[in-house]
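Quick log. Single chain, no ligands specified.
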Amino acid sequence: MSGYWGKILRVNLTTKETKVEPLPEGFPRKYLGGVGFGTRILYDEVPKGADPLGPENKMIITPGLFVDTGIGTGSKTAFNFKSPLTGGYGRSMAGAELGVQLKRAGYDMLIIEGQSDEPVLLVINDDEVKIVPADGYWGLTTGEARSKAKEEYPGYATAFIGPAGERLSLISIIETDDRQAARGGPGAVLGSKKLKGILVKGSKKVPIANPEKLRELIKKWALIFKDHPATKADMDYGSGEFLDWMNRERGTFPVRNWQMGFFKKAYEKAKEEGREHIGIDPYFWAPKYRKGRKPCPLCNKPCSQYVHVESQKWGTFEVDGPEYETLYSFGGVLEIDDFETVAYLNYLADQLGLDTISAGVTIAWAMEAYERGLLTKEDTDGIELTFGNGEAAVEALRKMAYREGNLGKLLADGVKRASERLGKESWKFAMHVKGMEPPAYDVRGIKGMALAFAVSVRGADHLTAGAYGTELVGKWWKFDGIDRTKGENKGYEIAVHENLMAVYDALGVCKFSRHMYFLEGFPELIEAVTGMHMSEAEIITVGERIMNVARAFNVREGFSRKDDTLPYRIMWEPIPEGVSKGLHVPPWELDRMLDEYYQARGWSRDGIPTKVKLLTLDLPDIAEDIGAGI
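-> predicted structure:
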């Protein structure tokens, strides 16, 4: 079939065996590609109860269907695994050149299994696949490893773990040529396999069903992107362009470990200095520091803000970002408004191999614990771990990556483990869902996103549903009249958003283009690439199928309604001031939203997909495995 090679590359690091297998029959139409392929293989091949850091876990790398076809923003590759952070379903998306080269090498999927007894690299050059010793690589930062690889393996796309992944930090990432597969601990999975890096180069051309039609469609969509108002804002200021709006217009920007929903201190400082914008607002820093852009592969609306910083405090460095989430996790949630410090924390996290969201939220928890007197100077290795202290945050980040000292050992595995290790009721301000730290949306004032956080298969997450825009603006696509402050009628909204976003992840399309493609743009693109005629209804059903397989993976691991919950602070402590003052999500309101959501999904009241639902999605084996009765 066009659009696919029909090939899986399987690499066993225990036996050092590599082999090529056929893509399972019917996969393209049922799962499309990307996260669809990865989720199903994860369910089929990683057994119940597998140790996420053991040989039974797998890293399944699946480029989206549209990767390397020329379709605008079709750049995303899925990294699929059992999450060491949550113990459940793990997925990280990256606009990775690695995915492009993997497709050019002739593969729809790369499955890495087993464990090496020594550090190795996986090197793929078309049909030639080698597992080689990682001599001189182990111990390097991600940037050092990439520089070394570019000399020794010119022309290859790369993916490396840093010191944090080597030390099995549960919040460690895979750095892939200035893009990060970050959430859920993928770096620890590779670290447990002693796989320092993956290098891929390909020379083949993805087969296209109707090249002429595809060229027409690429041109058509390029013009739509060019003229869309979101394109200019994204290109000029990056993903953080709505930071000021989130603060002043919505009051839903989490600050000081979620004690507030508005960066009050930064705005007071800016006002005193006669500035309109606070220091971490890209309207302030992007024009001053941006050196250029490093877009994801074949992106025609690049939001990348590649910055060059010459800092008296941190020296000279360059980094892509900071993204909106990082402006929160190393800025607002730590109460740091100095851009150079936030950018340096971003740079350091990428180099050391730590997820910026999880790392920042974990440090914020430690700052609150320190200020409450629950952490002593002995616990923090003498660091004055107070809010707004950039030097302390930098030192804490380094210690986390290397599991160094009392503080590093405490924080290296994220906020859930840290609060469990400390005790003393520190769980009450430990911000996580299912073990994953939340992104930059104070969902006390965004009720639909509160539900999305609670039910997300990979833990607190804004991208599984991607409903924050709908909630905050009040309308999008088929939805209108949405009230973010009310908990009613959120179940159907979030279920539909999740289904559609799963389609985006299967196709490999960036969610920043969801305002352009919606769902209606995909049938003709899929047909041009693959030759498959699929209606909108069939395509959205693919998304629903993917979401049910992912939920089934979690159910098999023991997850249920009890895990679809929210942090104590979100349920019991209202936002104290700002536009959203007084809002929170009490347990009774969350329970009502969960009932609505499970009903919309066709699941049991305990959040288990029913046999009937799974059979209607053509998942008879999963229905037999975990399906709930009537």
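The mean pLDDT is 97.
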